[in-house]
Design a protein that fits this description.
Blueprint: E1 2-3, H1 9-19, E2 31-32, E3 36-37, E4 42-43, E5 49-50, H2 56-60, E6 64-67, H3 78-89, E7 93-97, H4 101-106, E8 114-115, H5 122-128, E9 133-134, E10 140-143, E11 146-149, H6 154-167, H7 169-179, H8 200-203, H9 206-213, H10 222-229, H11 233-244, H12 248-266, H13 271-277, H14 283-293, H15 298-305, E12 326-327
Parallel strand pairs: 1-3, 2-12, 6-7, 7-11, 8-9
Antiparallel strand pairs: 4-5, 10-11
Helix pairs in contact: 1-6, 6-7, 12-14, 12-15
Keywords: Transcription, Transcription regulation
Protein name: Helix-turn-helix domain-containing protein
InterPro entries: Class_I_gatase-like, DJ-1/PfpI, Homeodomain-like_sf, HTH_AraC, INH-QAR
Length: 328
């Protein structure tokens, strides 16, 4: 993780909490996190000093590079920009939190890609880097192995998403319970801007979501949602969009895939039965939706994440013969 002068504490604390605390009971090995700074004894917000931070050489050798918020976003440190670029060229996964996206943009990593940042900085990011397709409406997103997130709490969502991709849903669910946060918020969910998008509880749909999760196996329709919530289809669709930036049926599809992920990780039941229990019907239908949402087949996902917790076993990588720590 990169540390810059006067960096906000919260954005620094999130990666430290998620990646920097050894959690062998969840996955062994966990992450080997290093804090790297451009200058020794970098002073961050509130007078705290990163006194034992490594230099940029460590950053260029990491498997995952996280760039939290950068106060000097107009002129990010050139050594940091070059180190991030070198790490990416060496094959590292790159992620930014809040205004850290300006460092990625300065390194040229966001050219031709979709990216997000805190909504307060979105216009400036778009103006300064016109080659970047800035989307200020989402919590986080990934484009070509480069991850960006909105401000502050969205960094938690992004970091949990990275853990989910490395270790699967069972591990990230256990971690989220310890942190007392939701295990997953879709990256497409709206940011809380000047007129905040309502949370599910605010729109009154939280009980409906719980009901639907308990009935995933049934052939639910939009009319079923409307009847259960005592809302018209139009009002229901509007409340889903306000709260989750999704249609009811698109949300239902994602929940079914997520339930299928859990069953693939934690049971040995056949894929055909998982398709039935998750409400996706057939193994063919499960495979189609799984590829759409997860990017790999159910069989490949099970091979990678069954009994998750044995090191870095991302669906995009072959499992190593011996566990190795991912360096963040």
């Amino acid at each position: 993780m990169a540390v810059t002068e006067r960096a906000p504490l919260f954005e620094l604390a999130v990666p430290c909490e998620i990646f920097g605390i050894d959690r062998p009971e969840l996955a062994d090995p966990w992450y080997d996190m290093r804090v790297c700074s451009v200058e020794p004894d970098t002073t961050v917000a509130a007078g705290f000093v990163a006194g034992t931070a490594a230099d940029m050489t460590e950053l260029t050798q990491a498997d995952t590079v996280i760039v939290p918020a950068c106060v000097s976003m107009h002129e990010p440190p050139q050594r940091l920009v070059e180190a991030v670029r070198s790490a990416y060229e060496a094959g590292a996964r790159i992620a930014s939190i809040c205004s850290g996206s300006f460092v990625l943009a300065a390194a040229g990593l966001l050219d031709g890609r979709r990216a997000t940042t805190h909504w307060m900085h979105a216009d400036e990011l778009a103006d300064r880097y016109p080659a970047v397709e800035v989307d200020p409406s989402v919590l986080y997103l990934e484009d070509g192995g480069v991850f960006t997130s909105a401000g502050t709490a969205a960094g938690i969502d992004l970091c949990l998403e990275l853990v989910r991709r490395d270790h699967g849903t069972a591990v990230v669910n256990a971690l989220a319970r310890r942190l007392i946060v939701p295990p997953h918020r879709d990256g497409g969910q709206a940011q809380y801007v000047r007129l905040p998008a309502a949370a599910p509880e605010d729109t009154g749909i939280a009980p409906l979501l719980d009901w639907a999760r308990a009935h995933l196996r049934e052939p639910l329709t939009l009319d079923d949602f409307a009847q259960q919530s005592h809302l018209s289809r139009r009002t229901l669709a509007r409340r889903f969009h306000d709260a989750l930036a999704l249609s009811p049926l698109r949300w239902l599809q994602r929940e079914r895939v997520r339930h299928a992920q859990h069953l693939l990780e934690t049971t040995d039941i056949p894929v055909e039965h998982i398709a039935d229990q998750s409400g996706l019907g057939s193994a063919t239908n499960l495979r189609r939706h799984f590829l759409d949402h997860v990017g790999v087949s159910p069989q490949r996902y099970r091979h990678t994440f069954h009994q998750a917790g044995r090191g870095d076993r991302s669906p995009n990588r072959s499992a190593p013969p011996e566990p190795e720590q991912s360096r963040a």
